[in-house]
Amino acid sequence: MLDDLDRRLLRHWQADATLSPAELAATVGVTPAKVSRRIARLQDTGVIEGIGAVIDWSALGYTVEVSLRITLDKTQAGSFDGFITAARAVPEVTEIQTFLGSVDVRLNIIARDVAHYQQIYRERILTLPHISDIEALMQIARIKDGEALPL
Amino acid sequence: MIALDDIDRALLRALARDATQSAGALGRTLGLSQPATWRRIRKLEDAGVIKGRTLRLNPEKLGFGVAVFLGVKLAAKGRSSLEDFERAVTAIPEVQRVEHVLGLFDYRLRVVARDLSDFERVLRRRIMTLPGAGAVEANVLLSEERLPGPLD
C-alpha cells in the first residue's frame, strides 16, 4: 500500500521527471537515502514502470496527427487480432487502443504533411484487414498533454 | 529540422524506453564512445527532438481501474467560448489529455477514474457541466499499446 510520502514523491516526479532522486528528496524534505529506498520499492512493485524520453515529432518534421476511429467486421473470427497485428507493422502508427463502445479500435497516426497522410491512409490503412468503417479526427491543437494521474 | 541517421534513431528508441541510461551504457550497445554518445544526445535535445522526460506509472496499481476516451461536441451556442471550455476542461484533474480536433467532434478527451461509478461522477458533475459542452460520446478503454513510431 502507498502512504502519503509515496504519493507526494510520485506527484512531484510526475510533474517533473527530470528531477534526480537527490533533487526529489530536497523537494519533499526527506533524506536522499529514504527517497532511493521508496523509489526502489515502487519500481519492484510495478507502480513505477520507467522513465522515458518524450519525442517531439514536429521537430522531426511530422506536423500532422490524426486519430482514426475504426469499426471492425466482427462476423469474421480473429478480426481484432488480425487487424492489430497488421496495424502494428505500420511505422507511422504510434498508439493502438481497443474499446468497449461504439468504436472498436483507435489508431494514432503521425505524418509529415497532409499529402503524406493521404499516402499512408490509402496504402497502409485502407489495406488493413477486417475494417468495416473508419472515421478520422484531425488534431488541431494539444490543449493538455502528459497524461498525468490525479494522485 | 534536423536529419537523423540510423544511430540517432536507435538512440531515440532506446531513450524513449529508458531515459535514465548513461551515455556510456548506451554507447556500448550502439558501438559508440561515451563522449560521442553524449554529443548526439545533446544534439537531439538542442534540436528539440527530445523535449523532456515522462514518468510511466501503472494506473491500476495506483487505483485507477478505468480510462475512457470522450468525444465532445460543443453546443452551437457555445462557439464563442472555446477558451472558456478549454480552461475549464484542463482544470479537471481526471482529464489527462485534451485535443482540439476537426471531424465528428470538437474535442477529444482522455479521462481516468477509479471505477465506472467514479467515472460516472466525473462525467455528470464535471464534464456535462462544462461551459458550452454539447453531445458527448464515451468509449471505455480495454487495451492500449504505445509504439516507437517511424524510427526504423
What keyword list fits this structure?
heterodimer, A: 151 residues, alpha+beta, Arc Repressor Mutant, subunit A, Alpha-Beta Plaits, 2 domains, 4-stranded antiparallel beta sheet, 5 helices, B: 152 residues
Q: What would your notes on this structure say?
A:
Chain A is α+β, with helices and mostly antiparallel strands. Chain A folds into 2 domains: 4-44, Arc Repressor Mutant, subunit A, CATH 1.10.10; 57-138, Alpha-Beta Plaits. Chain A has helices spanning 4-15, 21-28, 32-44, 79-88, 114-125; strands at residues 48-55, 64-72, 93-100, 105-111, 131-144. Chain A has a 4-stranded antiparallel β-sheet with strand order 3-4-2-5. The model of chain A has no long low-confidence stretch (mean pLDDT 96). Chain B has helices at residues 6-17, 23-30, 34-46, 82-90, 116-127, and strands at 50-57, 66-74, 95-102, 107-113, 133-146. In chain B, strands 3-4-2-5 form a 4-stranded antiparallel β-sheet. The mean pLDDT of chain B is 94. Chain B contains 5 helices and 5 strands. In chain B, helix 2 (23-30) packs across helix 3 (34-46). The two termini of chain B are 18 Å apart. The chains are: A alpha+beta (151), B alpha+beta (152). At the A-B interface, helix 1, strand 1, strand 3 and strand 5 of A face helix 1, strand 1, helix 4, strand 3 and strand 4 of B. Strand 3 (93-100) of chain A pairs antiparallel with strand 5 (133-146) of chain B.
